[in-house]
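Morning, I've got a small favour to ask if you have a moment. I'm working through a protein record and want to make sense of it properly. The fold is given in discrete form, as structure tokens running alongside the sequence. Can you walk me through what the tokens say about the fold? Thanks so much in advance, here it is:
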Amino acid sequence: MKGLLILVAMIASVVGIAMSLYLLIKKQPSYGRKISIRHFVVLLFVYANVMVGFGVLYISLELSGISVLKESDSLHTDTFLHLIEDVLYFSAVTLLTVGYGDIIPQGIGRWIAMIQALIGYLLPAAFVVTTFIHYDERPSRQPNRL
């Protein structure tokens, strides 16, 4: 039963990450503005959702017995709250920077961290590109003059 719950949590986190990225690409600013506050809020929501989604993925793997993170010699899992704190910290640092090196991924965690770092690197570019490409494609209000 515990394995099934962990699997469901992992699937839900991957679906949440994918839906957040889809939401970022789908939501465009309204005509007449280069930058939309709604678009910026969507970006913040996507960052938070991706961070928590990968955190759930790391926690699920740790709870299923697959060690993916290492802090000094091992990840301190004295309490579940401390595990959540370490995993969310690692997830945020990996998404927003390249990491500090105090908690390092190992095994399959390295591949997951690489994907997360790539997503964190590409999100600002996706935000800028979707905002300005949509702005350039809006209909012109001035008549064409020859």
Notes: The chain has one domain: 2-25+33-136. The chain has four helices and two strands. The chain has a mean pLDDT of 78.
